[in-house]
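User: quick one, fold this
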Amino acid sequence: MRCEVIDGGADDTGEEPAEAPVWHVEPGHGLWLVRRIADGASVQSDPSGTVAVVNFRLGTPGSPAPFRLDRRAEGGCTILAVTGQLDLGSSGEFGGAVADLIAATPGLLLVLDMTELAWWDSSGLAALVTAQQRISRDRSARMVVAGLPGPLAERLDEAGLAGLFTLADSTAAAVAALTSPR
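Assistant:
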């Protein structure tokens, strides 16, 4: 998907522009965020205006598996398997499930099994970051992300977010990492 935004540069009419609503703006944060989550971004300016282009790879063709969360216990850990797409429509359910697990289980050892995750958008990625932040508030709780598909692991790394998470190749490796003495 390609999104292109073009402005026409300086107003040549000599008239004052209509006053826009006052918004608190921190220059540069929007492009910083876009560069973190987009697959490609560019901005080009000259006297005739500015062109900003953002590209996102779309998921694989065909219908992805429907979003689903499955919970099970293994080796003293809670495994939450995520299937389908973690996106705007499902990130709330995912975030709620993680919050419920944290509230119900002090010292939660959580494995997020992502082997069947087909895709995520910025809402899904934000939900994953929020889950890690919630886990980090409880010093005795820990979380490992297991089986993250290659393209999603690459996007996480490209966004500079991989260091926020403990990653494992499989749920068995994640359980071992969580249950071994520190």
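User: anything notable?
Assistant: Residues 122-137 form the longest helix (16 residues).
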